[in-house]
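Question:
When you can, review this sequence-structure pair and walk me through the tokens.
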Amino acid sequence: MQSSQANRKQIKVIPLMMSLLICGFMGMFSETALNIALRGLMIEFQISASTVQWLTTSYLLVLGILIPISGLLIKRFPTRNLFITGVCFSVIGLFIAATSSSFVILLIGRIVQATGTGLITPLLFNTVLVIFPIQKRGTAMGIVGLVLMFAPAIGPMISGFIIQQLDWHWIFWIPIPFYLLALALGIVYLIDLSTDRKPNIDMLSIIFSTMGFGGLVFGFSRAGENEGWTSLTVLIPLVVGVTSLILFVIRQLSLKEPILNVRVFTYPMFRMGIGLTVLSNMIIFSSTLLLPMFMQGALGFTSAEAGLYLLAGGVCNGIMALLNGRIFDKYGPRRLVIPGFVLATISVIVFTNLSTTINPVIIIIFHTLLMVGMSMTTTPSQTNGLNQLPRSMYPDGSAIVNTTIQTCGAIGTAIGVSILNASQRTYLDQANHSSSPEVQIEALVSGVQHAYIFASIVAVIGLICSLFIKRVIVGDAEKRDKQEKGNYSLESDRVS
């Protein structure tokens, strides 16, 4: 403990956080920036939509596999070494993708790049928890939220400009100098923030984790790619994923040194934070899919126009994340989370009445309100939950939060697509002249409306749950840290 206190005095917060935030921004930017180039890649490489989608699926799959074990890596390996490794993977992956001349090489580049993102993103969250006191943690997490939310919001717009002026290869060339700058800052200013106790590596746990989270992300991603819930490529990964996760949890509870301490769920506000994160991200990811489809398919907008109309919501989401952090530090989560779910509920209910005659300004207004509401719920609820954990559990809590975000992205997208497709089929089966363009548009509108009905139900559930959130009092974490150490010693004796 004395070494960690000494390390904290040596920390240069601004350059250290700059190095991590640059990497976080570029990682989230890369996750969405390529989406707008997928159609062009299909033509260039002469591949199908289901094949090109692997550029997105593989990225999410690697994150889903790697992030759950990031808690073990953070506790076991020096922080600087882990950071340098993550940046090197990112740069190498970007270089492979930027110089690729075939789909297979491009896919390999994406996988290597995702490995770097999977290492760095949890490290960013854990670093904030370690170097900032609980009284200032909301503001710090707000800055993180600003960066991580702003990147995917502007990613499609920037990549569209890049493709129009240059070509898709530059989507991968441009981030490399920023990663190199972050690497230089990290080498100079990043110090070791890992724990003194180095847990053993349990290979069986890693296998269960990989099969569990990987199976869930893959299964839901395939369902979101119009495979359908009855497809074996969806059912088998989901069954394997759920079974493996159950075995993973049982295994962690039986180990003296688990690779992911699932006992974090014994803390009620952490459970609440994870639950609200699940609900919020299901709304965010499903809406991010539904609105562009509606604007392009029903209103006739181009992809660039749709992205521009939705940009305001993404920008406001990022800006509000910073303001929400300061409000959280002063007043706690209730004044943010409850109003946030109120705004989200109102917005998605409005979207259940989307039609071809709607004024696009209405979409801009309520999409912005939705994104503002979601920014008021996600980071404050996560920060409040993480604040309740003792310091030794920070890596585990950060890993679970980031895994939840990635998994919920796949789940929200899959459910939104499945409801959309089912409603479209039902409408077309009952309609006359189902092949006419007008009926096809009406079927799309019906599908989007039904998908937003599901989002409204999720928002109402989130609003009800948010009524029970409580602020974690300063000092509680320190008391729990001492209690946790005592409990851990007793638990170790029993296991031995």
Notes: The CA atoms of residues 146 and 318 lie 4 Å apart. DSSP finds 20 helices and no strands in the chain.
